[in-house]
């Protein structure tokens, strides 16, 4: 298949073969070997993608934490252990402890208490609204999956119709080419027969001319 300049993707491609009709490679194995040798000499395809291929999608561009978690999962790294120190209530290391140390311990206890209160609130909200939210989310995912499957089936149908149309068109054109090739062979054969007849007539004319000259000399 030959095409126009690859830098102009909107131009129509030119096909110089009929893959649904041509069977020279099957009829002549030596041609198949030549094609394999030619392909082996071809340079390797470029490492860059085609201009029509969209750039890769960058996930979690605005969320470094999720991006780091995605990298961890892709690299098959284990999940780091939970930090349990933040949930402890350490007392001052020295006895009886200074006022500043007890104040830090008190601030830590109040922060832990507030954290547990927020967790209880979130759990209550999740218990009340979480199931419905997940049902809605699952329904949306199912609809997206149905739309994607429908688009895929439509694309497969378009591809099948296009291939069927190409096959019918190439079969029809191939039959015309075969008819024209047969007609061309017949015309060439007729021309060769006419040329051979003309050569025979020329030889007969030369023979008669020589015969006439011999008779005239006698």
TrEMBL record:
InterPro entries per UniProt: SPF27 (IPR008409)
Protein name per UniProt: Breast carcinoma amplified sequence 2
Gene Ontology cellular component annotations, sorted alphabetically: catalytic step 2 spliceosome; precatalytic spliceosome; Prp19 complex
Protein location: Nucleus
Chief place of localization: nucleus
Alphabetized PANTHER family for the sequence: BCAS2 PROTEIN (PTHR13296), PRE-MRNA-SPLICING FACTOR SPF27 (PTHR13296:SF0)
Residue ranges of the region described as Disordered: 36-56
UniProt record similarity statement: Belongs to the SPF27 family.
Pfam families with a match to the protein in the record: BCAS2
Record keywords, A-Z: Coiled coil, mRNA processing, mRNA splicing, Nucleus, Spliceosome
Biased composition (Pro residues): 45-56
Coiled-coil region list: 99-165, 191-218
Protein's GO biological process: mRNA processing; RNA splicing
């Amino acid at each position: 298949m030959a095409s126009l300049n690859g830098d102009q993707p909107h131009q129509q491609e030119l096909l110089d073969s009929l893959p649904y009709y041509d069977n020279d490679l099957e009829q002549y194995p030596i041609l198949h070997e030549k094609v394999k040798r030619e392909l082996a000499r071809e340079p390797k395809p470029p490492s860059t993608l085609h201009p029509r291929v969209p750039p890769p999608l960058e996930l979690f561009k605005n969320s470094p934490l999720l991006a780091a978690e995605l990298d961890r999962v892709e690299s098959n790294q284990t999940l780091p252990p939970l930090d349990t120190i933040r949930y402890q209530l350490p007392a001052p290391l020295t006895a009886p402890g200074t006022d500043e140390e007890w104040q830090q311990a008190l601030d830590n206890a109040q922060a832990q208490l507030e954290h547990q209160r927020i967790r209880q609130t979130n759990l209550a909200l999740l218990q009340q609204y979480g199931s419905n939210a997940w049902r809605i989310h699952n329904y949306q995912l199912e609809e997206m999956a149905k739309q994607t499957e429908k688009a895929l089936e439509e694309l497969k149908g378009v591809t099948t119709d296009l291939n069927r149309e190409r096959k019918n068109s190439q079969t029809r054109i191939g039959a015309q080419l075969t008819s024209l090739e047969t007609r061309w062979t017949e015309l060439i054969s007729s021309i060769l027969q006419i040329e051979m007849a003309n050569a025979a007539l020329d030889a007969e004319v030369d023979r008669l001319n020589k015969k006439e000259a011999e008779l005239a000399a006698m």
